[in-house]
Amino acid sequence: MSSPPETAKPDGLTTHEAISTSGYGLPVYILAVGLIIITAYFAYELFFRKSKGLAAGGPTFIIAGPSGSGKTSLFTLLRYGEKSTTLPSVEQNITTKFWLPNLLDTAKPFVLIDTPGHQKLRHGMFSALQIAQAARTIHGVLYVVDASAMSRPEQLREAAEYLYDILRITERVRGGTDVLVGANKSELFTAVPAKRLRTLLETELDKIRESRAKSVGKVSAGGDKHDSDDGDEDDGAVVGGSGWLGKRGEKGSFKLEDLETDVMVIDGSVDNGKIDPWIAWMEERAVN
């Protein structure tokens, strides 16, 4: 049987053509969104698998810290020996050819990884750290903070929370993984000195420890989740859980010296090129 003739529309299009044209935008939109999702997924997989592979493949130092603390500027200064003005990073900067000034005769260059500080992008740092620890290639973490902002409670809290999650990972290996808290921008008038900053961080870390332990206890009492010192993990990022750090004791008793991880707080200034103490710290750990 022959198909019934198309009914002409007032605008000159047949019924079939009108339907096809009116629905044209939706399939294209769905296709575009799908392509974006697929591209983002493969870019994510390629990038983070690469960073994980690098972290496991050679002696490694990782730079971490809150956004805007000067991490990428430090990476540039260490890698190229020059200062630069940078914007907050949204991806990792990695070099496999990092040589420490006094260790140029070493048989193998170091891997240096600069990680983004935004809270939603920190999972890459957690993953790289855990991979490097498992491969026993990690030599230290440079945790950079803006010392001039540490007198502001919200900035101090953010720096302490990120450091807390890092320490939960470094404490999982025997002897811990050494951490340098680089008090950057120490030349500014508002900068908190390293000794004072260490005390402020210990106080804040103690509050976080108590707060998280109480939160987990409340959830456990509701029967939805069980308390665990190991906490929960999500794609390498440590989230939730009590994750108790240091010795168990009274509130206000937390001290960084009680950890397996050796944590040092040292003043410095990337803008002024005054990072010799940080480099000395790296060189000491590079040969150990």
From TrEMBL:
A single GO cellular-component term on record: endoplasmic reticulum membrane
Cell compartment(s), UniProt: Endoplasmic reticulum membrane
Keyword Ribonucleoprotein: no
Membrane association type: Single-pass membrane protein
Protein name, entry field: Signal recognition particle receptor subunit beta
CDD domains xrefs: SR_beta
Transmembrane spans: 26-44
Region (Disordered): 216-244
GO molecular function: GTP binding
Keyword list, A-Z: Endoplasmic reticulum, GTP-binding, Membrane, Nucleotide-binding, Receptor, Transmembrane, Transmembrane helix
Primary localization: endoplasmic reticulum
Superkingdom of the source species: Eukaryota
Entry keyword Transmembrane helix: yes
Alphabetical list of InterPro entries matching this protein: P-loop_NTPase (IPR027417), SRP_receptor_beta_su (IPR019009)
Family: Belongs to the SRP receptor beta subunit family.
